[in-house]
Amino acid sequence: MNNVVLKGRLTKDVELRYTQASEPKAYCMFGLAVNRMKQGECDFINCKAWGKTAEFIGQYFKKGQEILLQGRIEVSTQDTDGVKKTFTNVVAERVEFCGSKGDNQASNTDGSAGFTPTNFDEDDDLPF
């Protein structure tokens, strides 16, 4: 079973992008700072999201905000000029607001600060 649950803060603003395919698909890559149990230590984890989950993150989350995500670990390799590189990312499949309501209100001007969605299927419409 490949299941990951992380709670942390975004290390920078999320940049939403779209693939170059005939039917563009939204995606975003972002860093997450996750505290360890030992005081003062944290891990920086590379994450990405696709489709409506990516659009949701791009619209409602900013640098420093706390986020709770559930997803899976994805390991990929790339061979460039005979040098093999391995990349490990967490693919976010579900995200929720976390932290105090005031932390999230800064990016939610429509009053949806208490909104906790996302388990978006590609065919579903946004719930708002």
Topology:
Layout: E1 4-10, E2 15-18, E3 26-35, E4 42-50, H1 51-60, E5 66-80, E6 83-97, H2 101-105
Parallel strand pairs: 4-6
Antiparallel strand pairs: 1-3, 1-5, 2-3, 3-4, 5-6
Task: Give a written overview of the molecule.
The chain has 128 residues and is mainly beta. The chain has a single domain, classed as OB fold (Dihydrolipoamide Acetyltransferase, E2P), CATH 2.40.50.140. 12% of the residues lie in helices and 47% in strands. The chain is built from two helices and six strands. It has a five-stranded mixed β-barrel. Strand 2 (15-18) and strand 3 (26-35) form a beta hairpin. The radius of gyration is 16 Å and the shape is globular. The termini are far apart. Mean pLDDT is 83; it is low at 105-118. Homotetramer. Plays an important role in DNA replication, recombination and repair. Binds to ssDNA and to an array of partner proteins to recruit them to their sites of action during DNA metabolism. One of its GO terms (molecular function) is single-stranded DNA binding. It holds the Pfam family SSB. Keywords: DNA damage, DNA recombination, DNA repair, DNA replication, DNA-binding.
